[in-house]
Design the sequence.
């Protein structure tokens, strides 16, 4: 019988009490491996109540004491890195190496959160007026909810909750229903590390659970990461309900290749950033903008054999460079874009449709027409040349192993493409020229920029977030912005009786 995944509420695993369930697949075989409960309003209520009950004591716990628990949690996460990575790979499909890397990036946020006593230090002015001192500090918000996407089932939750709980909040995580198991295991390890029951809870579900969380009067803040239409919807609804909200959305990341770029380095960068994790990354490069036909021709010539030669396989294949897509439905959607690109007139240089795993597993033979449908949601790498801005493969986020090459005549045209696109998550420029790179970092309307770095994901002690329709709200995730999001500022103006005594003053106080 298929196992059913538990929620994690009040410090322990809790069996589902509702009657709606979803399937969790093993994308590398296509088999259903578990059932995930889709929480009812009553289950969401119970989880919020657990988080609310835990808040006063946790908020009153001194930051160094919170940090000590986070340190123990950090050690446990490091010990269990491989186990968590395997869980991620088995439900998401990404290669084990890639899963290990993503869990490591999540663990780095826990490292950052261990510094919370330092991060929460306020400001103090002596003598802002005669006998009056002024100081400020930051306090936790209360119960914070996190709603996360399928593509990083461990890392994106760890962008949120380590900072939130370090700041003294309690947290309720609603991970993606497509790969929900890693979140439960991570919450279990937090409790093993000494986190009090109810401080970190995990509730599974779909839109119904998200709507219940957003509307819940006992939820004070909402962090969302997912696709742009849902991010915008969550942002509007949560703001309307009076909550603090940050909602990170989709992306279409461009990599501009200047004529002076190191082409070998650029090709390696494009391969990893476009096809790693089968393109299911919000920082994946999905558009290469070649400045000049000479660069474009050289890129296509070097990229095409590499894309054809990609080693595709399930996470049990240690040599696989690219795994399957997360579900059959998602693969159909991505293939639909490839079909549309051909119809719209782009040149499909490498066609990955129908390409299966390299090792022949699941019936595939790495050759066209084989395998992909015999089991596993595989799709080979696709490369388009001569893509134009009006085509759907350019305007839309595909979220699959599809790289579009656009030919620009000049640097200014390339920059306009970057700036005119509706998304503004990441972008990169490959060049040897410092002036051009500096101009790009200054003028690109993008949240995270790489100079000869294809996936410029900021380190945990910086903050992650995009511009334009890649982020709704004001604060980014983790780093200093994360601390600001999960706390609110209080400013104290203080005088002691020995200070100068004023008469009643009927005008606004100044420091006369
Ligand atoms: P998604 O928007 O379908 O789902 C995200 C979350 O929202 C999930 O927990 C899901 O259960 C919930 N959800 C789905 N439909 C909903 C609805 N109608 N109402 C309320 N909640 C709903 O995203 P996904 O397919 O899981 O993830 C891929 C997307 O996430 C891509 O667009 C990717 O770019 C984006 N993403 C963005 C970032 C970033 O930092 N900007 C990071 C990772 C992923």
Sequence:
């Amino acid at each position: 019988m298929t196992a059913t995944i538990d929620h994690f509420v009040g410090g322990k695993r809790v069996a589902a009490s509702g009657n709606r369930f979803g399937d969790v697949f093993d994308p590398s075989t296509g088999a259903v491996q578990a059932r995930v409960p889709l929480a009812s309003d009553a289950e969401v209520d119970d989880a919020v109540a657990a988080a609310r009950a835990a808040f006063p004591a946790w908020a009153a716990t001194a930051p160094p004491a919170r940090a000590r628990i986070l340190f123990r949690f950090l050690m446990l996460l490091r010990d269990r890195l491989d186990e968590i990575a395997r869980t991620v790979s088995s439900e998401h499909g990404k290669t084990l190496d890639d899963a290990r890397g993503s869990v490591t990036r999540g663990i780095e946020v826990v490292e950052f959160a261990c510094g919370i006593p330092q991060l929460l230090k306020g400001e103090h002015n002596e003598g802002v007026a005669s006998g009056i001192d002024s100081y400020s500090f930051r306090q936790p918000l209360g119960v914070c909810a996190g709603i996360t996407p399928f593509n990083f089932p461990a890392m994106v939750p760890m962008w949120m909750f380590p900072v939130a709980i370090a700041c003294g909040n309690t947290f309720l995580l609603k991970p993606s229903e497509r790969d929900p198991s890693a979140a439960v295991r991570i919450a279990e390890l937090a409790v093993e590390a000494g986190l009090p029951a109810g401080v970190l809870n995990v509730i599974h579900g779909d839109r119904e659970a998200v709507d219940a969380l957003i509307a819940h009067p006992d939820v004070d803040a909402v962090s969302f990461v997912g696709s742009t239409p849902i991010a915008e919807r969550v942002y509007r609804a949560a703001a309307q309900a009076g909550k603090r909200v940050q909602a990170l959305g989709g992306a279409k990341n461009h990599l501009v290749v200047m004529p002076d770029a190191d082409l070998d380095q650029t090709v390696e960068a494009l391969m990893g950033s476009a096809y790693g994790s089968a393109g299911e990354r919000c920082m994946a490069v999905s558009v290469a903008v070649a400045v000049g036909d000479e660069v474009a021709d050289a890129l296509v010539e070097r990229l095409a054999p590499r894309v054809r030669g990609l080693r595709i396989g399930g996470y049990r294949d240690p040599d696989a460079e690219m795994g399957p897509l997360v579900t059959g439905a998602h693969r159909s959607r991505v293939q639909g874009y490839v079909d549309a690109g051909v119809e719209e007139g782009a040149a499909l240089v490498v066609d990955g449709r129908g390409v299966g795993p390299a090792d022949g597993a699941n019936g595939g033979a790495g050759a066209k027409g084989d395998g992909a449908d015999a089991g596993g949601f595989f799709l080979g790498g696709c490369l388009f040349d001569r893509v134009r801005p009006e085509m759907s493969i350019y305007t839309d986020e595909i979220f699959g192993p599809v790289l579009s090459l656009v030919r620009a005549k000049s640097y200014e045209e390339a920059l306009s493409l970057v700036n005119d696109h509706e998304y503004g998550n990441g972008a990169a420029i490959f060049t040897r020229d410092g002036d051009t790179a500096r101009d790009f970092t200054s003028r690109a309307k993008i949240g995270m920029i790489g100079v000869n770095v294809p996936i410029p994901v900021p380190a945990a002690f910086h903050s992650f977030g995009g511009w334009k329709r890649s982020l709704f709200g004001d604060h980014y995730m983790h780093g200093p912005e994360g601390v600001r999001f999960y706390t609110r500022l209080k400013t104290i103006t203080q005088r002691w009786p020995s200070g100068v005594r004023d008469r009643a003053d009927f005008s606004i106080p100044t420091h006369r």
